[in-house]
Design goal:
The protein is 49% helix and 12% strand. The protein has helices at 33-37, 40-50, 67-80, 91-105, 184-203, 209-231, 236-254, 260-272, 276-292, 301-311, 321-338, 352-368, 381-393, and strands at 8-11, 26-30, 54-58, 84-89, 129-134, 146-153, 156-163, 171-174. Helix 4 links the parallel strand 4 (84-89) and strand 5. The radius of gyration is 20 Å and the shape is globular. It binds fe (ii) ion. Fe (ii) ion binds at residues 139, 193, 196-197, 262, 276, 280.
Length: 399
């Protein structure tokens, strides 16, 4: 038995107006100060005013949301007692909204109770409707059951990867009006997060035909539309397609898994506080090269990537898997250059000494990450350290 879970997806121009069809009067809006200052909360509240819904705004979410802030939101939500919870923002906001949603319905729960084996959570969603409205095209948080929470533990901010399959929002509203103002750098970094979701999702040990379909289409759309959106951020067609792609990537990895790129990205981010899309995006081509180099004769990573390259029309069907898979690496390098995305860790201002001093901790955090076990090739600690150094220097993986 396997499964494919997803929210109901409303997408395209004026998708925000679908809110009038969602039952309930009182809305608890979870967002952040930046989103509010950019006028996006106003777009949402205007839509709610039009359909006569009431609302309260909790705009205190910070990047990499801390447990304490989420608990504050939980308290405010319980006091307001809404019919609908709306997460308006990037991944941090939507993850916070999902955690608040779960703990609003189960007030005795804390963050540690949001785990896959909590059977009580199977009835989540009976009391309140959860609506996720992403304002970036990257995390796919509106489509997944994962909730990433930062907790200060043993001297570092550890990213807890909480999850429960009932934590998928009821609705994902993908309106490009919220992304058309995204600056190019953020557009690219978040799109590379979605690209990482797609490539890791399609090679993960938990891949399946449904998740494969989502990941494949997301990759195709990102390669086509990202350069257009970078050149012309106001191009609604490009924004719309990138928004759909990030959502598909979310459904892809949400029903499969990410693996060592995200294990490395989360662990790196815990130490150096690099934005998520930037860290997982930089690691992407290095971990794919690592999969392609798997010496195991029964390795399937290379086969998957070789086939993917052919499905995307980048290689001929008669080509062998290794050379076809290698084209993917070249395509990623081209996209990085075209969109001015950093190709190495060196470019984001970290020194080699910083890496050497922290590599044991990063490797230890990788092993603590649930993502690390889903890769078709599992690095040992020496491989993890080499991946870090190669990604720092920009060297092609040769091991
Ligand atoms: Fe991600």
């Amino acid at each position: 038995m396997w499964f494919f879970f997803s929210p109901k997806v409303v997408f395209g121009d004026e998708a925000i107006n679908y809110l009038q069809n969602i039952k309930g009067d009182k809305c608890f809006i979870v967002t952040d100060k930046n989103i509010k200052d950019l006028g996006m909360v106003k777009i949402l509240t205007d839509a709610l005013d039009t359909c006569g819904k009431q609302y309260e705004i909790f705009a205190e979410v910070l990047p990499d949301p801390h447990e304490e802030d989420i608990m504050k939101g939980k308290g405010a939500c319980i006091t307001y007692s809404p019919d609908i919870i709306i997460g308006l923002g990037g991944g941090s906001v939507i993850d916070t909204a999902k955690a608040i949603w779960a703990m609003n319905e189960f007030p005795n729960f804390a963050i540690d109770d949001l785990h896959p084996f909590n059977e009580e959570l199977l009835s989540l969603g009976k009391k309140t409707t959860m609506v996720a409205i992403p304002t970036t095209s990257g995390t796919g948080a509106e489509a997944t059951w994962a909730i990433i929470v930062s907790r200060f533990q043993n001297g570092v901010w550890v990213k807890l990867e909480q999850s429960h399959k009932s934590c998928i929002p009821h609705y994902a509203i993908l309106d490009p009006v919220f992304t058309k103002g995204m600056p190019p750098k953020l557009t690219v970094a978040t799109a590379f997060d979605a690209l990482a979701h797609s490539f890791e999702g399609i090679t993960s040990d938990w891949k399946n035909e449904y998740s494969n379909a989502m990941c494949l289409k997301a990759i195709e759309l990102i390669f086509k539309w990202l350069p257009i959106a970078v050149k012309d951020g106001k191009n609604i067609e490009a924004r719309d397609h990138l928004h759909q792609a990030a959502n598909m990537a979310g459904m892809g990895f949400g029903n499969s898994q990410v693996h060592i790129g995200h294990a490395l990205g989360h662990s790196w981010g815990a130490i150096f506080h690099t934005p998520h899309g930037l860290s997982v995006g930089i690691f992407l081509k290095y971990i794919l090269m690592y999969l392609i180099n798997n010496p195991d004769e029964n390795d399937i990573g290379k086969q998957i990537l070789g086939k993917l390259s052919k499905q995307l029309g980048w290689a001929e069907w008669r080509d062998d898997n290794r050379s076809s898979a290698n084209i993917i690496i070249e395509k990623i390098k081209q996209l990085e250059k075209e969109c001015e995305f950093p190709q190495t860790l060196k470019e984001i201002g970290v020194s080699k000494e910083d890496i050497e001093q922290n590599s044991d901790m990063i490797v230890s955090l990788c092993y603590q990450s649930p993502s690390c076990v889903m890769s078709p090739r599992s690095p040992d600690s020496e491989d993890y350290k080499k991946l870090l150094l190669y990604a720092y220097e920009g060297k092609d993986i040769d091991f």
